[in-house]
Design brief:
This protein is of the alpha/beta class. The protein has helices at about 15-25, 60-70, 85-90, 90-115, 145-165, 190-200, 220-235, 250-260, 290-295, 305-325; strands at about 5-10, 30-35, 50-55, 75-80, 120-125, 170-175, 180, 205-210, 215, 220, 240, 250, 270. Helix 1 (about 15-25) links the parallel strand 1 and strand 2.
Length: about 325
């Protein structure tokens, strides 16, 4: 009998890659989707006919309980959140309600409906914020520097609490930045690669960015969802840093993307103070030793390959849109 999995945030970058992985592994895959005025199923359109989509919301306890009853999953992957750091400054209460308390609602629903369900919580490297040590590992103290980071700390610790208090097989993946052609346009990696593609095609002439000195540990989302799945196959739940162990500056990201299309970034990039965070996170780099040792997980896509993949995808998308707009 096929395993059953429920994914919250299935329409997002990570949710779409995870759904693909689980389908390939023979799972029956259910996805929790919010009822909104504008449905965006673009990332899962190619597999939507193989998915079972259920209406629900992390802010509504009843809908989560109903989703668990309907899906009857062996595994639940909680990827849903208000996931953009910059937005969390403008919407701190909403971010806390969904990204923090939403985890509690889902865990408590599991506790009451079926406590044998295995649970994955998507934690973020933003919990380290003003880092206490380099690189960051599972034992590094947390020091979040945004409402989003604070909410993710809560989600992380409530997961640990339910694991230790109720014996739920609950694991937390402390994922460092992971990108792909499916990344939202508001994130700096996609903003850069789309901006480069637009400039190369003559559709734009400048790219406005914030802090070019910030450093991140960037990997490929398709690799990182494999780590999520592996956590729930372990006999013992736990917390794992998922990262490449290498760090790159935003400026290096910009240089790599522009260089790939034979352009000099200095001719096009303008620093814009409006994109600077109220409290910046300067250096994030993870130590994935535990994930490598216990899960046997290793990233397969390097930084340069990732950037080029994203630039190629944005060039193709913009060219296809131009053809469609022209009615060809």
């Amino acid at each position: 009998m096929a395993k059953r999995a429920l994914i919250t945030g299935i329409t997002g970058q990570d949710g779409s890659y995870l759904a693909e992985l689980l389908l390939d592994l023979g799972y029956d895959v259910y996805g929790l989707v919010r009822r909104t005025s504008t449905q965006n199923f673009e990332r899962i359109a190619h597999i939507q006919h193989r998915l079972n989509l259920i209406s629900g919301d992390l802010s509504d306890q009843t809908s989560l309980q109903e989703a668990l009853i309907q899906a009857n999953p062996d595994e639940v992957y909680n990827l849903a959140a208000q996931s953009f750091v910059q937005t969390s400054w403008a919407q701190p209460v909403f971010t806390g309600d969904v990204t923090a308390l939403g985890v509690t609602r889902l865990l408590d629903a599991i506790r009451h409906i079926n406590p044998t369900i295995r649970f994955y919580q998507a934690t973020s490297s933003e919990i380290f914020g003003n880092v206490r040590e380099v690189p960051q590992r599972e034992t590094t103290p947390f020091y979040p520097r945004s409402p989003y980071g604070v909410a993710k700390v809560y989600g992380h610790w409530i997961t640990v609490n339910y694991r230790e208090s109720y014996g739920i097989h609950a694991s937390s993946g402390i994922l460092f930045n992971h990108e792909s052609p499916r990344r939202g346009f508001e994130f700096v990696t996609r903003k850069v690669t789309r901006g480069v593609a637009m400039i190369k095609l003559g559709l734009a002439h400048e790219l406005h960015l914030g802090n070019l000195d910030a450093q991140r540990d960037w990997g490929f989302a398709g690799d990182y969802v494999k780590a999520m799945w592996r956590m729930l196959q372990e006999d013992t739940p736990g917390d794992y840093v998922i990262a490449t162990g290498k760090t790159w500056s935003v400026q290096k990201l910009v240089e790599t993307a522009f260089e790939y299309v034979d352009l000099d970034w200095r001719d096009y990039v303008r620093q814009d103070p409006s994109f600077i965070r109220p409290a910046e996170v300067d250096l994030l780099v993870g130590d994935p030793t535990k994930a490598s040792t216990i899960l046997g997980w290793e990233p397969s896509v390097g930084f340069v390959e990732l950037v080029r993949m994203m630039v190629d995808a944005d060039l193709k998308l913009l060219q296809e849109n131009a053809v469609t707009a022209a009615g060809v």
